[in-house]
Write a structure and sequence with these properties.
alpha/beta; 4-stranded mixed β-sheet; 7 helices; 23% strand; elongated
Length: 319
């Protein structure tokens, strides 16, 4: 890729000042997003310090020009006229291209979203925040001593579905909404994988957060993004499907749920679940928010009330 350009860009340079020369380890374009830039600089800075090196940034039209500017600055600081790049410098990285401008439809990594789910023992409110800071992923509120298995399945399921994991501080809060404290167990807790993944993706801008309104999600995520059946799904759906909300479940389990009086939607993968949510397939038939001649603004929450449909949809329902 050609690096010829007349526009300055920021480059991150990593190496070691040896007093009489500079050993270049790597040079690459800095992320254009301020938060991603801060995260990258922090991570690289720790690694460079551990290796007795340092991190510098320079604005230039190419990686070569950025390194030359740094070396010139260090030469002036050292007062050594022969100061230059060390013989063992990694020169292959000097071909790094200038960063391309961000795509206009790139998902915003910061936001909040919430949805509902459940297990055999209790319902759960899932709330996710994606906020600026060092990239991290934490899950709280699960009746598990070590939630690493949940985090690993969710992260792998998202990435292996071809979706970008948000470069931000992702915090998932799962709060039990039913059953006594002593009655809530970890049985079927893998069924929270799907709602956690979808809520993370909604909080980070992959789908509008209001697409989650009016839906309940239950499903275990495979590492490949497939949606699998958690233990105790029929009793879970019976509990969660008593109201007006649609319950999104693994498609492989639909035959086991026919006898339950609930509106269920089957999905085979995480991407299918996102399509169902973004397409508002979980909304009631003739939803005022989704139909072309609807009386409500499109793509707005269609949250059922405890007494039935939302006001806009109730107005369209036949008496």
């Amino acid at each position: 890729m050609s690096t010829n350009t007349t526009e300055n860009h920021e480059f991150i340079i990593v190496g070691q000042d040896r007093g009489a020369s500079y050993c270049l380890w790597d040079v690459a374009p800095a992320p254009t997003d301020p938060t991603k830039r801060a995260i990258v600089l922090e991570e690289i800075g720790v690694d460079a310090m551990d290796a007795m090196g340092s991190v510098h940034t320079e604005y230039a039209t190419s990686a070569r020009e950025a390194v030359d500017r740094l070396v010139n600055e260090l030469r002036e600081q050292s007062g050594i006229g022969s100061y230059g790049l060390a013989a063992d410098s990694q020169l292959g990285s000097l071909q790094a291209a200038a960063p391309a401008p961000p795509a206009p439809d790139e998902p915003e990594p910061f936001g909040r979203a919430q949805t509902t789910s459940g297990t055999r023992d209790a319902g759960y409110a899932i709330e996710v925040s994606s906020v600026p800071g060092t990239a991290s992923f934490a899950v709280t509120g699960l009746p598990l001593r070590y939630p690493d298995a949940t985090r690993d399945r969710v992260r792998a399921g998202v990435i292996n579905s071809g979706l970008a994991w948000p470069m931000s501080n992702v915090l998932v809060k799962a709060a039990s909404t039913g059953g006594g404290r002593d009655d809530v167990t970890s049985v079927g807790i893998s069924g929270l994988d799907l709602p956690i993944a979808c809520t993370i993706l909604a909080a980070s801008g992959h789908i509008p957060a209001d697409c989650l309104a009016g839906a309940v999600l239950v499903g275990e995520l495979g590492l490949d993004g497939a949606v699998r059946t958690p233990y105790g799904l029929p009793s879970t759906v019976r509990r969660l499907g008593a109201g007006n909300a649609a319950v999104i479940v693994p498609s492989a389990a639909l035959s086991d749920l026919k006898h339950i009086n609930a509106r269920v939607i089957g999905v085979a993968t995480l991407n299918e679940a996102l399509a169902a949510l973004a397409g508002h397939w979980h909304h009631p038939e003739d939803c005022a928010h989704c139909t072309p001649d609807g009386d409500a603004e499109p793509h707005q929450p269609c949250t059922p009330t405890p007494y039935g449909l939302c006001p806009a949809c109730a107005a369209r329902a036949p008496f």
